[in-house]
Amino acid sequence: WAVGCGLWLRAVAAGRVGALRCPGRVQPRSGCGLWAAAVAVAELRAGSVLCAAQVGALRCPGRARPSRSARVSPVPCPACLRRGTVAAGSGRCRCGNIKAAVSVLQSPACTLLKNYQKWRIECPEISADLQPSSVLGLLQAGYHGVLRSRDPHGSKVLIYRIGQWDPSLFTAYDVFRVSLITSELIVKEIETQRNGVKAIFDLQGWRFAHAFQISPAVAKKIAAVLTDSFPLKVRGIHLINEPLFFHPVFALIKPFLTEKIKQRVYMHGSNYLQSLTEHFPATILPQEYGGEEVSIEELAKEWTDFIMESSDYLQSISLVA
């Protein structure tokens, strides 16, 4: 059994399970060897520990049924269970029944984990260095902020101000890294996993120097995260103050988006106050956008401070030292 399980692990993990050559010889963290090994393989793919519900999906009630109080992280990794709609408790199996566990690892949730890891490896210019110092100038310029309150649907609301991006100092990859850093932090929130995110892009100040940064290769990498390579549901993308010459850039990205994402893109133009408040109540919007909250400058500073406080965690998930 141990040899067979070891061969299966090698096949599933494609050579990435050196420490688990024979799961029958190691002390499982909880439950039978197959269950613990399956959890470990999924953890390897996610680059993090699994949440309790995901572990439940891989549970094997064989010789040593894992305890309900098994010590696992309450923070999903990184929320693929909900994005991939894997039901806790599915994939139950007897100790010799590898097929059921494999079906869980081949589920949409684990496919998403695999896609994300693959995307990070293939896009090192964006994802290798997630330390705040790599984009500190952008953050201090007030390029990005997060609203204090969620929208009525429970979505986290992010704001990006293109006018604060100096393309002579920062590339499109740097700008996108800011978004990835925020995503890595908020994906740990259970409510965000359930209700996703919405983004407001203020394109005031967009110029040709910005447009020249968005090549087809960059557009494809951005679209990959919006569609099937990051475990956050994108519930809405709202563009305000978009100039006419922004539309060719959006046309470059659009073919790479799914139909569902395309339907969630809203262009409000420069007279956006009324239409924007149809999607977001004034009580949560900053003052500059017709809201009653504090200024976007203050929100940006608050979020920059939070990112800086999270430096150790971001260092731990970076692909570079």
UniProtKB/TrEMBL annotation:
Signal sequence annotation: 1-19
Per UniProt, the keywords (alphabetical) are: Signal
- PANTHER family (alphabetical): ALPHA-TOCOPHEROL TRANSFER PROTEIN, ALPHA-TOCOPHEROL TRANSFER PROTEIN-RELATED
GO terms in the biological process aspect are:
negative regulation of establishment of blood-brain barrier; positive regulation of amyloid-beta clearance; response to toxic substance; vitamin E metabolic process; vitamin transport
Indicate yes or no for the key word Protein transport: no
**Species in which this protein is naturally found:** Ficedula albicollis
Record's SUPFAM superfamilies?
CRAL/TRIO domain
Q: Which residues form the CRAL-TRIO domain?
A: 131-297
A Gene Ontology MF term for this entry? lipid transfer activity
Q: Which domain of life is it from?
A: Eukaryota
Q: Which InterPro entries match?
A: CRAL-TRIO_dom, CRAL-TRIO_dom_sf
Q: Mind telling me which Gene3D superfamilies this protein's record contains?
A: Alpha-tocopherol transfer, CRAL-TRIO lipid binding domain
What name is this protein filed under? Answer: Alpha tocopherol transfer protein
Q: Where is it found, in Gene Ontology cellular component terms?
A: late endosome; membrane
Q: Name one Pfam family in it.
A: CRAL_TRIO
Q: What is the lineage of its organism?
A: Eukaryota, Metazoa, Chordata, Craniata, Vertebrata
